[in-house]
Amino acid sequence: MKATEVPEIAGAYLFEPTPYADERGFFCRTFDADVVRSVGLAPDAFIQDSVSRSVRGVLRGLHLRSGAGEAKLVRCSYGRIFDVVVDLRPDSPTYLGRAFFELSGETQATLYIPAGCAHGFQALTETADTSYRIDRPHDPAEDVTIAFDDPELAIPWPLPVTSMSQRDREAPSLAEVLKQRES
């Protein structure tokens, strides 16, 4: 497994495993504490695992947590997703930077997203399972959502949106969220 720094988002990493494939399918390590530790992250800091299943065109995001934020490891364990990270940490050298990835069940790559960054994705296949490893308990009172189609972000979502949550549909603009954070 190798770790590569994401240049558009300071402190973000892409972890790429080395699958072993044979006639039965494949096997690969999707989390390695030593590799995580080698880039300065604490492997035991992650306390909660979750999974979502989406169908083609479903869009989830852009989400982040207020307060201390939430760091997470994200992996598409089945299918393919278009994954987006936006740096919303005012003191970051990559503030307002955006990074786009295609994560898939074929590669099993894992993306580390630092606390203070917004995250969203769109399912590219009929079924896409996305796994999350999160560094603190979920508190719905800290949920923050940003409009997926905010023109300031100009995210090139690859497909028409087929479905999204009510919360995502009604999300405020990036400017509104930033203004709320300042007050």
Which structural traits does this protein have?
single chain, 39% strand, 13 strands, 183 residues, 3 helices, five-stranded antiparallel sheet, mainly beta, RmlC-like_jellyroll, RmlC_Cupin_sf, globular, six-stranded antiparallel sheet, Jelly Rolls, isomerase
Structure description:
The structure is a single chain. The protein is mostly beta strands and 183 residues long. It has a single domain (2-182), classed as Sandwich (Jelly Rolls). The protein has three helices and 13 strands, in the order ββββαβββββββββαα. The chain has helices at 33-38, 166-169, 174-182; strands spanning 2-5, 13-16, 20-22, 25-27, 48-54, 59-65, 72-78, 80-87, 98-104, 110-113, 117-123, 128-134, 143-145. The strands form three sheets. A six-stranded antiparallel sheet has the order 1-2-10-7-12-5, with no helix packed on it. Strand 1 and strand 2 (13-16) form a beta hairpin.
Number of domains: 1
Rg, Å, rounded: 16 Å
Main sheet makeup: 6 strands, antiparallel
Class per helix and strand makeup: mainly beta
Q: How much of the residues is beta strand, in percent?
A: 35-45%
CATH class reads: Mainly Beta
Poorly predicted residue ranges: none
Mean pLDDT: 95
Number of helix segments?
A: 3
CATH topology value:
Jelly Rolls
Task: Kindly report the name of the CATH homologous superfamily.
Answer: Jelly Rolls
User: Could you spell the SSE succession in H and E letters?
Assistant: EEEEHEEEEEEEEEHH
Count of distinct strands: 13
Widest sheet: strand order?
A: 1-2-10-7-12-5
**Broad shape:** globular
Helix percent reads 10-25%
